[in-house]
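User: structure tokens for FAD-dependent oxidoreductase, please.
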Amino acid sequence: MPAEGRAPHVASWYAASAGDIPTYPSLKGHCRADVAIIGGGYTGLSAALSLSKAGYKVVLLEANKMGWGASGRNGGQIHPGQRQDPDWLAARIGEGPTRDLLRLADEARAHLDRLIAENGIDCDFRPGLIHSVHKPGWVEAEKRHIDHLRKKWGIEREFLDRDETARRISTDIYHAGSFDPQGGKLHPLKFALGLARAAVAAGATLYEDSRVTRILHGARPIVVTADGEAMVETVIMAGNGYLGGLDAETDARVLPINNFVVATEPLDDLLIPGEEAVSDSRFVVYYWHQTPDRRLVFGGGETYSHAFPEDIAAFVRPHLARVYPKLANVPISHAWGGTLGITFNRMPFIRRPRPNVFIAAGYSGQGVMLAPFVGHVIAETVGGAMGRFDTFAKVPVTPFPGGPLLRWPTLVAAMTWFKLLDNI
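Assistant: Done. Predicted tokens:
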């Protein structure tokens, strides 16, 4: 996908409510370091923090501002577990490796809590995630699935009947739901900026407006920007949906798509009395939560072209009105879009293509929980601890069908089909 260019943060509610947003210099001239990290999102910032604490000299190169991409624009939802169901994983990689991945997911969830607590990051964290079922024919399957997760995989969720679901989220359009106490929500940009401050405090050097244009691979790679270059021992590519053109293997497996979010003006009603995050069972998922000042932050609708809709609020409003008909005409204070990276099987693409190069991308909507942990795991691996990285890296991630020219129309056709199924 073409780069959006050097820019300040988009006019999101997150940017408006993040408080002081620091500015970091751009890279000018030549520098040397142990590690160069490409991308100032959760993966890159977490890796910079862990590596700096371990004594490495780290430079991080961000094309725009820290947290500018998906890390600062997403729905703020914390989804425990892996992106795919355990049975799906077990059918493809075996039960043992699946249990290893579930253990890593548990570690990722605990790591998120530690990052927030140990670094004093004020990011409006609230626990709890409600998953709502939008088709009546799926209710019994949801009951069976919750029971199976508990018995087979030791994953605890609470089934919510239709009345309880409606009580918890103040809409009666859903037929059932489930509650995951390990899920939650946070202010994604505050979290990213908090990681940046912690990384700097630990000794990392952060550069903004420093888009990487190429990497000269070798025993000591050189990472090149428009105005400078960094000679290092190790490169970590952590740009997720914005890595296009830097690595052919990643380009084949990580596809950028656009997602859109609105924030309403503060509401009189507390729609979610337990303050949980909420998502639903659509393939093109709806997700939402209320902010501390009772705005509804609601995400719905995706596009697969390079351009955003001219009127994002008008694009998202029908989706919001489907969930909350009484909010069909509610004033919308902020509307924004963002680009995330997805893979064909929705599992993250975490690899070591060269001895001194690491790639982590394609979190497919699971990045709030997984990306900070993956950054930490890569930092461990730079130091020689391979075990946890290898568990992630063994998960197969196939290229998108159609190659560079046809993967976009293939994806559009598939997603259009799934959108139709959502409405049946």
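User: Anything notable?

Assistant: Residues 1-6 have pLDDT under 50 and may be disordered.
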